[in-house]
Amino acid sequence: MTSIVEWSAREADALRAALRLTNEEFAEQLGVSVRSVALWRKGDAGAISLQIQRIFDTVLEGATDSQRERFAQLIGLGRGAGAGVELRSRLDAAANLHSALGWLQSGRDDDVAAGVLAAAARMDAAAGPRWRMAETDRSAVAHRLHQYYADGFGDHLPVCVGLGDANIELTILSAAEWVSNPVDLQADVAAKRFAYDHAASVVPKPDSDTWRRAAETRLAECLVQETRFVDGQLYRMTGWETQSDGVRTSFTTGSFAQYALTVDLLEAETLAAAQGGGEALPLRDLMMPTVESVLTPGSRNCMGGALALTAFARPAQGARPADFALLIQERGAKVLNASGRLAVIPKCFHEPTSEPSWEVSVGTSLARELEEELFGKAEVDTTLDTRRTIDPMHPDLLTGPMRYLTEAGPDAWSMECTGFGFNLLTGNYEFPCLVAVHDEGFWQRCGGDVESNWESERITLVSSQDEAGLRALAHNPAWSDEGLFAFVLGLRRLHELHPERVALPHFEIGFTQ
Fold first, then answer.
1. Torsions phi, psi for 370 (to 5 deg)
2. Taking the model in full, what pTM does it have?
3. Which domain holds residue 217?
């Protein structure tokens, strides 16, 4: 059995953690002041008296086997000690996680890092998170969320895609007027639809032990799985308003880490419940319990972004008529969102690069991500811990494909926002878009330079004239909901622009009542 020759503050706090006691509970059990326990946690206490050391011995002797095993691991002894030391070294070196740790630690007495390490020690690095590795039934997730919010739906309803005899229910909350008026993101008037909110209030941190454990587990997962996770600025939506010419939205900047450790946890909770048949969704009850809360983005860390169906015009070749090459990606294992799912490309967080007030249009994010995800530009993502060019979209820094498009003029290509919605699964806002390159010369000259980056496991190219292939693709259950939302809206809009080049399969975009 583990024994301690001389107790120090480190061993004292490890004993408290192994027993799963708060400062107050531990102080009461020992008969000491809460201040003494707090000093042990900080490592600031001096020598511990022999009387208190004897009490520690007694408490440790009376602990259960599992409590003693936890204690041994916390002080670097017993089974898994080597792994614990290695994890501690990795966490100390993981500077990308330190700001998130600091935010979680703020205002707390317990050691957040210890909680993260304990969660990491329980994880199987090879298997990965259960909810990501399993083939989750997307329709079961949609049904679960529709049931959860069933009593609150009003003018805004979940999107439903009708494909022949199949109706695919999505977790995207939208409205008819949000998906009926495409917006030219390159036009000056588009800028008025996206406003920067300089007076936005700060979102308070959740107050829940369940949330704290989930946040620690998320960081442990990032540590073990080596997920790309670095704090940075994202646009946080603060409000929206539907007007006669479409929806208008407002944003401020927020923290990627605070988003990842709050509402982004809802996806894992919901998918785990769908797989295991569980009913309880305590994190959702805490952070997004009603449809009204979904539609009130300023009350949470409501981040999101733009994702676009990208289509390149191609001349007729052999038996294939003139068409568009459509690009579909399978998301890689290292991305934080929609890992392993089908999505359109590019798919990006809405974020500034250098001038938040003036880069607030989603078109700015989309153009930047088009460069990074398809045209081979070096990352300028603010969630990566690297030095960044002050003006990464300066004309001197454009890739060859983007320079071709900008020099060819506005008739050569278009960027349009085809809709808007809130994702019930994640709490994100979603701006589905269409990037259409109308100039056939682009594909002939630059098609060889189109390549995917690390975010994609693979890219599938589909012809817009392949009606059967498009129908089968729409039926594929591997889509993320926001990906399928963008795909069908983008395909519908592309057919409106070029009906002679798009063999559109029959589908209807409606809403689940």
1. -60, -40
2. 0.80
3. 132-200+211-511
